[in-house]
Amino acid sequence: MGKVIFSVQYEINSGKRTEFFDIINELKNLVKPEGLESYELYEVKGKKNHFQEVYIFSSEEAYENFDDNQSERINILVGKLGELTVNNSTKYTTLCQVITN
Fold first, then answer.
1. Cα distance between residue 92 and residue 86, in whole Å
2. Which residue in 15, 26, 45, 84 has the fewest CB atoms around it within 10 Å?
3. CATH number at residue 83
4. How many contiguous H segments (helices) and E segments (strands) does the chain have?
5. How far apart are CA 93 and CA 95, in angstroms?
């Protein structure tokens, strides 16, 4: 069973960067379930306010259990993030590792 990379890409409304980073920083401190190897945030080069969150899980099982371990505070923060995003800009990608070194 290989690793899983889960990513969420979206655009936030202009003028909401400070609020966005405040939410992301709190989320980063809360999102530490077992099997999550890393969580990172990237901004798309040349596209201000276009971001991609990248979660790397140690296994498919860890990925599948991720939603089961969400606290109420995480759910509230995710809801606030949704309010900051441009409508219909969110895209989800899940990659399952098939070859390892």
1. 15
2. 45
3. 3.30.70.100
4. 3, 4
5. 7
pTM over 0.70: yes
Task: Render pLDDT for 91-100 as a digit per residue (tens, 0 to 9).
Answer: 999 999 998 7
* pLDDT (0 to 100) of residue 18: 96
The range of the structural domain enclosing residue 73 comes to 4-96
Domain count, the chain: 1
**Count of other CB atoms within 10 angstroms of residue 91:** 10
Rounded Cα distance between 40 and 48, Å, is 17
Mean pLDDT of 31-38: 84
Q: Which two tokens stand for residue 38?
A: 């890393």
Would you say residue 101 lies in a domain? no
Residue 37, pLDDT score: 93
Q: Are 63 and 57 in contact (CB under 8 A)?
A: yes
